[in-house]
Structure formats: structure tokens, C-alpha cells
């Protein structure tokens, strides 16, 4: 019988030791950069502090929007810090910049008023916070005015505590429509809204894969689509984890594009006063909290609806109410085969 010579134990031990020595001499910043170069690689499960500066700026057509100014993620165990500002667009967008955290993380947002007038704020759903971070006026919270003036930024602190996993809207709650900004309604309907996605500490989320309910890892997600259903249009953005977690604004009633067989998560939220029946023709997903397969869902003001699927076919998404459908509240979901040239053209158009 032929004998195979196994490597000696001391050789294995030597290789392992050399690897440890080399890694110990690498600066922690380099290790962080290597890990961040591929956002789909699961990071250490340490709690993080997300230290963010968001600006508020005016757009044309009486629109106002949030914009990302600075975003640092600090590891609360080893204090390593990574700057991910460059993953975001450097201009105000509608929806505003999406924040992605894990259960157990902390968020500190400093809001800067770059308009020179008014008192905008940030009021979140889902995450926990103290009353001083409610993002409302003293008339409502009975404690303090929590908005950014033209000369004084305001800082909010949120806690993505256990049980807060989900996709939640945040929006203005103070600027109002008068010069003093004393309306408590806020101006989310003109553009001051965005989303915080809180991934579960378990790292598992339900998904419909090849027609079968499964639990997938958050690191399996190739794209997050964020859609805000307004009273008359649908605003969209995306996070592409196959491109290092790049955030892109998609505009109004956008075409959502992904590669065939990719795992995508839809984060549907509503802004305004109407109820909407969000539908995707030809696409099915799991009703949250169940294994029931659906292809439409009614969503009310400032509510949310999140689902994850394996992309295997094209579809059209829309608000399935006659008046809104006639008004053009619809867009395409385009699934591209890997051997298609459409993806290359789309990439070139972004350069």
C-alpha cells in the first residue's frame, strides 16, 4: 500500500506562528482597511460607535435635503476607527443618506444647518434615545428645542438596542413652514427624510430563495434598495455591497437594477399622509414574521415593510391604487444576466 508522507507537526506549528507574528506587526489601521475593502466580509462582532455629521441644504424646486458630511465608525472594544464618508455622495440627496448599523451599536449624529435659516432636526423611529434626542421642539417634548439653528449644530444620540432590528425612517420634525420654524409637523414631505437600517445581532434575516423560505446572513446581501413611497412619487436609493458598500441616489420612480441570482433587500417606507398598496408584478416575498408568500402589502404613513429575495426575474413595482398608478407611481425591477453587456454599460455610465 502506498504511504503518503504527512507534514510534520513542527512545520505546521512554525507556519502558524509565523502568521501570528506577521499579523501582530501589521498596524491595526491596515488591518481595518483590508477588512473594509470588501464590505461583504463579515466584520468583528464588536459594538461600534457611528459618529456622523449630516448637513441640511436647499435644493431647487423648494426641496430641502440631508447630506453626508462625515462618517466615522469606531470600534468600542479596540478603539479602531474607519472613515466611510467616501462611500456616500457628497451632495444633498432625496432620500438622505442611509445609516446601516448592527444591534448593540451606538449612533451620534451632529446636524448642521447649512441653509442660513430655519431650525431643522432629526427624529428617528425604531432606535432608542433619551428625550433630549427626540428631535422635537420644547412645546412638544417639554424639555428643550432640539433643532439646528444657522449658528448652532445639534447632536442626537441613538441606541440600536436589542429588539430594534429593522429598517426605520428618520425625518425632520421641527422646521415647519414659517420663518420661526415653530410647526411641529416638520418638512419630511419636501425631502428631509431618510432611513436607518439596524441589522439583527443574530446576523440572520428571513428571505425567499428559489421560492423557499430561508434564513440568510446579512453578509449575503448584495444590495439594499431603499424606497420611500410619498403621496405622489416614489423616491429611491441603493447600497451596493459588491462595490464596497457604495451608496447611490436613484431619484424618482427609479429603475432598480441587480444581477441575476443576487440577494437583495427591499426597505419600503412611507412619507406623507396616504396609505399605499406596494406591489411588484411577477415577484413574491415573505410576509414579515411568517412564511406566507405575498406580492403586495399595504403601508401607511411613516410605516415600513422589509423583505429579502433572490433576484431571478424582472418585475414592475407600483402603488396598486388607481389614482396613484395613473399618476405614474411605478418603476422597473431589472435583473441582469451575468453574461449581459447591460451591466458593463451601466458601470461605464457611472464613471
Automatic annotation (TrEMBL):
Q: Could you tell me which species this protein originates from?
A: Candidatus Nitrosocosmicus franklandianus
Q: What is this protein called?
A: Multicopper oxidase
Q: Does the keyword Ligase apply?
A: no
What Pfam families would the database entry show?
Answer: Cu-oxidase_3
Top-rank taxon of the source lineage equals: Archaea
InterPro entries cross-referenced by the UniProt entry: Cu-oxidase-like_N (IPR011707), Cu-oxidase_fam (IPR045087), Cupredoxin (IPR008972)
Keywords on record: Copper, Metal-binding, Oxidoreductase
One of the entry's Gene Ontology molecular-function terms is: copper ion binding
Domain Plastocyanin-like stretches: 94-180
Q: Does the keyword Ribosomal protein apply?
A: no
Amino acid at each position: 500500500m502506498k504511504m503518503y508522507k504527512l507534514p510534520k507537526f513542527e512545520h505546521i506549528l512554525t507556519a502558524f506562528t509565523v502568521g501570528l507574528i506577521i499579523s501582530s506587526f501589521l498596524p491595526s489601521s491596515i488591518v481595518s482597511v483590508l477588512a473594509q475593502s470588501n464590505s461583504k466580509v463579515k466584520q468583528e462582532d464588536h459594538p461600534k460607535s457611528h459618529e456622523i455629521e449630516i448637513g441640511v441644504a436647499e435644493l431647487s424646486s423648494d426641496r430641502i435635503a440631508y447630506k453626508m458630511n462625515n462618517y466615522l465608525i469606531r470600534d468600542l472594544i479596540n478603539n479602531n476607527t474607519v472613515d466611510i464618508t467616501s462611500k456616500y455622495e457628497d451632495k444633498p440627496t432625496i432620500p438622505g443618506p442611509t445609516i446601516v448599523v448592527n444591534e448593540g451599536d451606538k449612533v451620534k449624529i451632529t446636524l448642521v444647518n447649512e441653509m442660513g435659516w430655519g431650525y431643522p432636526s432629526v427624529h428617528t423611529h425604531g432606535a432608542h434615545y433619551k428625550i433630549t434626542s427626540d428631535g422635537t421642539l420644547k412645546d412638544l417634548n417639554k424639555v428643550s428645542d432640539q433643532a439646528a439653528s444657522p449658528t448652532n449644530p445639534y447632536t442626537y444620540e441613538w441606541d440600536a438596542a436589542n429588539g430594534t432590528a429593522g429598517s426605520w425612517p428618520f425625518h425632520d420634525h421641527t422646521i415647519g413652514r414659517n420663518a420661526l420654524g415653530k410647526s411641529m409637523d416638520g418638512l419630511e414631505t419636501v425631502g428631509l427624510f431618510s432611513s436607518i437600517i439596524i441589522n439583527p445581532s443574530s446576523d440572520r434575516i428571513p428571505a425567499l430563495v428559489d421560492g423557499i423560505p430561508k434564513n440568510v446572513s446579512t453578509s449575503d446581501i448584495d444590495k439594499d434598495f431603499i424606497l420611500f413611497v410619498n403621496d405622489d412619487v416614489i423616491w429611491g436609493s441603493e447600497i451596493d455591497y459588491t462595490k464596497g458598500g457604495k451608496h447611490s441616489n436613484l431619484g424618482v420612480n427609479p429603475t432598480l437594477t441587480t444581477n441575476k441570482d443576487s440577494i437583495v433587500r427591499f426597505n419600503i417606507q412611507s412619507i406623507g399622509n396616504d396609505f399605499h398598496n406596494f406591489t411588484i408584478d411577477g415577484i413574491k416575498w415573505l410576509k414579515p414574521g411568517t412564511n406566507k408568500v405575498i406580492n403586495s402589502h399595504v403601508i401607511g404613513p411613516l410605516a415600513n415593510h422589509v423583505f429579502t429575495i433572490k433576484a431571478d426575474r424582472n418585475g414592475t413595482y407600483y402603488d396598486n391604487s388607481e389614482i396613484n398608478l395613473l399618476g405614474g407611481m411605478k418603476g422597473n425591477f431589472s435583473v441582469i444576466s451575468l453574461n449581459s453587456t447591460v451591466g458593463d454599460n451601466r458601470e461605464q455610465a457611472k464613471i
